Amino acid sequence: MIYLDYQATTPLAPEAFEAMVPWLRDDFANPHSAHAGGRRAKAAVEVARAQVAALLPPGGRIVFTSGATEALNWAIKGTCGGIVTLASEHAAVLDTVEAVRCGGREALVLPVNRDGRVEPDHVAASGNGLVAAMLVNNEIGTIQPIASLAARAKAAGAVMLCDAVQGFGRVPLPHGCDLIAISAHKIHGPKGVGALWIRDGIVLTPLLHGGGQEEGGRSGTLSPALCAGFGVAARLAQDRYAQDAAHVDRLFDIALDRFAAGGWTLNGSAEHRYKGNLNVRRDGLDVARLMSQLRDIAFSAGSACASGSGRSSHLLRAIGLTETQARTSIRIGFGRYTKEADLIDATDRIIAAADAQSVAA
Fold first, then answer.
1. Active site residues
2. Using CB atoms within 10 A as the burial measure, which of 114, 186, 259, 314 is most buried?
């Protein structure tokens, strides 16, 4: 199979896998236990914490979670006051905001333009408790002006939450955020572990109650294996940053040129984007049929989190696409382990299958 669904998840780095094995097979102690085995496990967790923190701003702490969904839920539910967010956000933010709105908190969902970007000045008039925005959009790759949003949030007396899941380790993290949610499996780490970076001085109401194992109020036994895998994945992302970025930029140019020549249209910003994400559409395309015909190519019709819902992408509708246009769009994602020859083969086959649909119609 040619794997082109990097926004859904990334292949596990071999180095991350090897780092996890001892903590699954031999050193299985609870990292919160006081005996020697527990202390060794705790040390492994702290090494991983430092490796992840190296990609994040100074002046804050890393709290491990079960993933970005938990981190985002905690950041939103753990704060108070009104909320400002964007219509282009991930469901983990939008659905959580709706849940707390039903509980009595005020919420404002700002529109985005055709590129999927928001106008930062829209935040300035909102003296709210929390501003939540995604750094890199998971469906179209658009990069939001997070630093500008954070400055306006601060001026309004609000806390700035950045969903950096798709950008962590891939693009520079902006300054000025108070809370940053990240996930291991988007940077070639294991599934089931993420983190919330919390700026010093920010206090959140706990989301999970219990033993309070993590500083900052997160309860639950940590997995040293998952944390170790996350840490090594973060270290690799830091070490390979320039190499990975250059590889992704080249792959993007190759794929976009082919799609553009075939009459496809790019969704999202051509300028402000992470280039490992390519979302394109073609009039009259039957996406379900296309995916059925090309089952040995892993690509997407949108967010994996919404697959099977029967709904078109809320994000594509938020940037002004019609229902028909949203349903004729596909997303391909690539990165470190994508071979150029495989991408060319897959892209050409996708285009040829779409051409065949047009002829048959």
1. 305
2. 186
